[in-house]
Amino acid sequence: MGNYTGKYVDSFVLAVPRDKLDAYRELEELSGRVWRDHGALEYVVCIADDVQPGKVTSFPQSVQLKEGEVVVFAWAAYRSREHRDEVMAKVMQDQRLKDHSSSAMPFDGMRMFWGGFKVLLEV
What we know:
The chain has helices spanning 21-37, 59-62, 81-93, 95-98, and strands spanning 8-17, 42-47, 69-78, 113-118. The chain has 123 residues and is an alpha+beta fold.
C-alpha cells in the first residue's frame, strides 16, 4: 500500500439508550461545535436505521446492544493525521468539554469503540 497523506478520519461506534437520545444529542451538539471550532472539517453523528445482528459479527453485536438501545456511528474528518493530532490536543484542553461531567454521559463508554483511519479512496 502507498502512503496516503490525504484526509484522516476518527470514527466511533456506541450504544445509546433510546430514552437518553435527547441528552446524547445535546452532548454531540456540544462536541461537534468544539471539534469544528478547533479545525475539524466535519463532525457527523448517525443513528442506526438498518442494522441487523449478524451470524458472526455486526454493529449491534460489536457494542453488545441491549433492549431499548440504538447503535450510533459517528466520525470527524481532518486534513491529515497531523491536523487531527493538532485538533485533538486543543479539544482535550477545551473547557466546554471539561465542564461536562463524565458521570453525566448518556451511554456506557465501556461498550464504545473508536479509531483513526487514513482515507484510502474518496470518490
